[in-house]
Amino acid sequence: MASAINAIVGLVAFLHFYFLVLEMFFWTKPRGLRIFGNTLEKAKDSAVLAANQGLYNGFLGVGLIWSLIQPNPNFAFQTKVFFLSCVVIAGIYGAYSVSKRILFIQAAPAAIALILLAIS
Question: What is the spatial distance between Cα 65 and Cα 51, in angstroms, rounded to a whole number?
Fold first, then answer.
């Protein structure tokens, strides 16, 4: 069970590093425009905000990686719960304020990991 949980936590971390790259480096590029459904003009106007958001996503990814390499099992558990909870809350808010897709792309994998942690 621990391996499955760690794999999902790793997936959530990877997703947040991917979000970092999209928001910081591809926001105004064709791939970013397509993924986020922006026009070039809108993307240019919001590029600084998107880069800031990408940086925060990177911090969430780093925290999740930290939870995976933490040698103290109790602290690793607490760190996973904290960062996964942050991801779920961010995903719920993103679904409310931006797009319902965020609930499934961001919040759901973290929620699954939290549920598995709770029952393990």
Answer: 21
